[in-house]
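We were asked to recover a plausible sequence for a given structure. The inputs and outputs are reproduced exactly as logged, with field labels preserved.

PROBLEM: sequence recovery
POSITIONS: 183
GIVEN STRUCTURE:
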């Protein structure tokens, strides 16, 4: 199967817009002020509707259809489809099957599965979902089996949890520094 360059380009554009708006809101200090920023919410709703259409037509946009970057862009769009848990659950099943066939990256499954678990108030498996406490310290949300988390992460190509938490902390510190320097 040849790569569908038009679809790949569309997915990459959707993901890039998601990240652009996220960065813009983070840089301005608007992210986290409202429960769900209206601009993010509107974009996520638009992207959710479109990714649903794409999946209904093509199935999971796997590597052979849209390339590795295109498939990861599809994952990002679904990862942020938090207003449509049904879509996220459907895509988790599709993503697991695609991963088993070499059509998607295993770490994508980890992030989506953890997101769904934490959204439903359950402990996560892979430790991919973090929060920032009132003192500005990053921490992973509750984990089902902390003793096994680094082994499970390694199996999917993820760095150890401590490294991931440090990366998230550094990103948070950079965002705060950028906002402070612009004020």
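RECOVERED SEQUENCE:
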């Amino acid at each position: 199967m040849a790569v569908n360059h038009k679809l790949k380009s569309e997915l990459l554009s959707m993901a890039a817009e998601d990240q652009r708006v996220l960065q813009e809101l983070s840089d301005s200090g608007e992210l986290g002020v409202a429960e769900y920023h209206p601009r993010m919410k509107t974009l996520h709703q638009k992207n959710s509707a479109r990714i649903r259409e794409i999946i209904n037509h093509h199935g999971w946009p796997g590597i052979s259809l849209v390339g590795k970057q295109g498939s990861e862009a599809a994952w990002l769009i679904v990862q942020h489809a938090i207003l449509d848990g049904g879509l996220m659950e459907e895509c988790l099943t599709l993503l697991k099957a695609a991963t088993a066939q070499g059509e998607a990256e295993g770490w994508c499954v980890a992030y989506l599965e953890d997101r769904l678990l934490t959204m439903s108030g359950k402990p996560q498996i892979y430790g991919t979902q973090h929060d920032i406490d009132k003192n500005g310290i990053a921490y992973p949300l509750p984990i089902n089996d902390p003793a096994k988390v680094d082994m499970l992460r390694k199996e999917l190509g993820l760095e150890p949890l401590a490294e991931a938490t440090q990366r998230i902390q550094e990103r948070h510190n950079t965002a705060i520094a950028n906002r402070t320097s612009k004020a």
